[in-house]
Amino acid sequence: MNFIITLLVNAGILLGMTYVLPSVKIKNYGTAILVALVIGLLNATLGMFLRFPMNVVTLGLISFVVHLVVTAIMIKLADKFFDDFEIKGFTPALIIALVMAVAGMLL
Question: Transmembrane segments in this chain: where (predicted)?
């Protein structure tokens, strides 16, 4: 149940960011749900392999920053998978990752 709530909140964040950031475009809420699901799957699989060496190099001292950067990379990667989802630049992806992290902490 927690996974579904997190998925819907992340989809809402993605859709909300289209109104806040002009460089983010998403077609509808259904696309936002699919994109949030792909971002979650990429974070769980590929993100783990990226986070581990980065945390080892930094000795885990900036683990939160590493998690934000890796999530932003996964968001940009999800941008390549969908035609109805577009992010121009890395900074909006980093802002979306930050908002998702804050919302995840509040949940």
Answer: 32-50, 57-75, 87-106
Residue 85 bridge partners (DSSP) = 26
pTM of this structure: 0.89
Question: What is the DSSP code (8-state) at residue 28?
Answer: -
Q: Per this entry, what is the length of the chain?
A: 107
In angstroms, the first-to-last Cα distance of the chain is 12
Residue whose C-alpha is closest to residue 75's, from 63, 62, 91: 91
Distance separating alpha carbons of residues 9 and 59, to the nearest angstrom: 31
Q: Is the pLDDT of residue 1 over 90?
A: no
What are residue 24's DSSP bridge partners?
87
**Domain limits, the chain:** 2-106
